[in-house]
Specification:
The structure is a single chain. By secondary structure, the chain is α+β, with helices and mostly antiparallel strands. The chain folds into two domains: 2-275, Aminohydrolase, N-terminal nucleophile (Ntn) domain (Glutamine Phosphoribosylpyrophosphate, subunit 1, domain 1); 284-341 and 354-462, Rossmann fold. It is 26% helix and 27% strand. The chain is built from 17 helices and 26 strands. The strands form seven sheets. A seven-stranded antiparallel sheet has the order 4-3-5-2-11-10-12. It has a six-stranded antiparallel sheet with strand order 6-7-8-9-13-14. Strands 19-18-23-24-25 form a five-stranded parallel sheet, with helices on both faces. The longest helix is centred in the middle third of the chain and has 15 residues, at 280-294.
Length: 495
């Protein structure tokens, strides 16, 4: 039997990468997608723009799997993905929508102005309304993705300039988007006015890059220039290559307060990335320190030290911050590697026979028993969604014979679904909602000796260099920055 290996974690739907003015552009796109693999492991795709005389031909290759699986044949780069510009996309699918390769981005159309390709990270909260309206007007949709709505809005716009067409389309959509758009003569990056998702600009040997995280620049030895600002449209063309002056426009003239997704710092982004003009590692360590200040664990009895372990890999940095703060508070502690994670299981696991046996978390983790046995163990983790993986993890650690297990979470309880690009389960599946935020009962259900989360205020205090009201906390508080259509899911039109 083949079972899916799914982390019980918030899932971010995509990573994007675009480049303009680089020979063999598909190669840096490919490497960039490798660096963004954590943002999507279901599927990947690349489109390149190849100039042929007076015209431009768009070449495309996409498929299901990891980047290395989709682009395993060198002939793809030598014979197919030719050109000096390109965009790429990594994807996590929502339920049901991974069945058709049509849903794999980037999406490509040819309309009256030429070729138009798009790669999108985020979620358009009024997509159902816009899609139904477009269908009533005669539009034919090929996918179940909200991203295709943008293609139709751009293609149907009566304005002449492509920059103006894109701006007109973005003024009609609501929700979150960080996207790259490639036309015959332009690379465009755009970010919604609230700046929910990250997007940055880089430079490589005179070429310009627009991508989700700075780690995708680092893998290409590219220079980080700056973030795309919330509500900004960035246009790269031949003139920009010659002058070095990036063209910048506003989506609209209505200023709004930024609402960055705080989970980008807590979990999604790589610790070696710079997003929202801050280093992720710095913020994640600060989260761990605030967690320790407010929710410390002390050695039991005559025990010498508390053993602090992170759940690899996303919680490692917060665990460092937690243990460092315990030391500053003169609480005897030691940071240890108590869990070993397998990185070689891929997206599925073949389980021959014993179908009733729950192998669960043991596929991904094993304990270092000598570190944990007869010790007071503090597990630092970044979040709990359903609680299923956390419970299995606690059971695994319990088998190593610790004296006690204490779980500390570097975020508040998740009680509400997200509509801005995270694929949360329904609210009824959220363990914090199920137990009506009674932390003690949640801890009992997970099998730990104690469980403590950060409060929203404590979490926001760790967001150094940022005003606390510049973050979206809707999955914790239920306060959504925009109007949302709670009835729409991206897979609705697959049914």
């Amino acid at each position: 039997m083949k079972i899916n290996i799914i982390d019980d974690k918030p899932v971010c739907n995509c990573g994007v990468f675009g480049i303009y003015g680089y020979e063999d552009a598909a190669l840096p796109v490919y490497y960039g997608l490798h660096a963004l693999q954590h943002r999507g492991q279901e599927a990947a795709g690349i489109i390149s723009a190849e100039s042929t005389g007076n015209s431009t031909r768009f070449n495309i290759h996409k498929g299901f799997g990891l980047v290395s699986e989709v682009f395993s044949d060198n002939k793809i780069f030598n014979n197919v993905l030719i050109g000096k510009a390109g965009i790429g996309h990594n994807r996590y699918s929502t339920t049901g929508s991974s069945e058709s390769v049509k849903n794999v981005q980037p999406f490509l159309v040819n309309y009256r102005m030429g070729n138009l390709a798009i790669a999108h990270n985020g979620n358009l909260t009024n997509a159902k309304f816009l899609r139904d309206k477009l269908v009533d007007d005669g539009a034919l949709f090929q996918t179940s993705s909200d991203t295709e709505v943008l293609l139709h809005l751009i293609a149907r716009c009566k304005l002449e300039g492509q920059k103006d067409q894109i701006r007109d389309a973005l003024n009609q959509v609501e929700g979150s988007y960080s996207l790259t758009i490639l036309t015959d003569k332009l690379l465009v990056g755009a970010r919604d006015p609230f700046g929910f998702r990250p997007l940055c600009i880089g430079k490589l040997n005179g070429a310009y890059i627009i991508t989700s995280e700075s780690s995708a620049l680092d893998i290409n030895s590219a220079e980080y220039i700056r973030d795309v600002e919330p509500g900004e449209i960035v246009v790269i063309d031949d003139e920009v290559l010659n002058t070095g002056i990036i063209k910048s426009y506003r989506v609209n003239e209505k200023p709004v307060q930024p609402k960055h997704c705080i989970f980008e710092f807590i979990y999604f982004s790589r610790p070696d990335s710079k997003i929202f003009n801050s280093n992720v590692d710095k913020i994640r360590r600060k989260l761990g320190k605030e967690l320790a200040k407010n929710h410390p664990v002390y050695p039991a009895g005559d025990e010498e030290k508390v053993i602090v372990i992170g759940v690899p890999d996303s919680s490692n940095t917060a665990a460092i911050g937690y243990q460092n703060q315990l030391e500053k508070m003169d609480i005897p502690s030691k940071l240890e590697i108590g869990l070993i994670r397998s990185h070689y299981i891929g997206r599925t696991f073949i389980q021959p026979g014993q179908q009733e046996r729950e192998i669960g978390v043991k596929i991904k983790f094993n304990t270092v028993k000598g570190v944990l046995e007869n010790r007071t163990v503090v597990i630092v983790d970044d979040s709990i969604v359903r609680g299923t993986t956390s419970k299995q993890l606690v059971n695994l650690i319990r088998e190593a014979g610790p004296k006690s297990i204490h779980l500390r979470i570097s975020s508040p309880p998740i009680k509400y679904p997200c509509f801005y690009g995270m694929d949360f389960p329904s609210q009824n599946e959220l363990i914090a909602y199920k137990y009506e935020n009674e932390i003690k009962k949640i801890g009992e259900s997970l099998g730990v000796d104690s469980l403590e989360y950060m409060t929203i205020e404590e979490m926001l205090s760790a967001m150094v260099d940022h005003p606390s009201d510049h973050f979206c906390t809707s999955c914790f508080s239920g306060n959504y920055p925009t109007n949302v259509d709670t009835t729409f899911r991206k897979d609705e039109y697959d049914k």
